[in-house]
Amino acid sequence: MKNIKNNSVKADVNGSIYIVRFGRTQMRIISKSNFFANEVVLKITEDAIIFRVAGLDDTRTQKASFTNGQYQLNILAETKEGKFDFDVDESDCDRAVIYCR
Beta strands of 45-81 (E only): which ranges? Predict the structure, then answer.
């Protein structure tokens, strides 16, 4: 089991995210879920985005900014735009799964 970074927040995996194009090569993820108060590690597959709370051993983490009551995270990846709900069966306090179908 990986150690979670000391300043982690109890994650809420209810709700949804919005994915919008941001510039020519970036996508922006927007959410009100406090899951993004933690540093996260992303894994993007063909039909899903998996967010995992970063552990002490993780070096490629991302921290969302918090503006106007929303977390915003910019990523360099090509994925579908739109509103996507957390998959509550696949998600827990350390991992959030979004299916982009």
Answer: 48-53, 65-67, 70-75
Q: Could you give the number of structural domains in the chain? A: 1
Q: What is the pLDDT of residues 5-47, one digit of tens each?
A: 445 555 566 788 999 998 888 999 999 999 999 999 999 998 8
Domain span at residue 62 reads 16-99
d(CA 82, CA 80): 7
61 part of a folded domain: yes
5 found inside a domain:
no
CA 88 to centroid of chain Cα atoms? 14
Cα angle for residues 98, 80, 23 (degrees, 5° grid):
120
For residue 10, being part of any structural domain is answered with no
68 found inside a domain: yes
Q: In what order do the strands lie in the sheet with 70-75?
A: 65-67, 70-75, 26-31, 16-22, 82-85
- pTM higher than 0.70 for the full model? yes
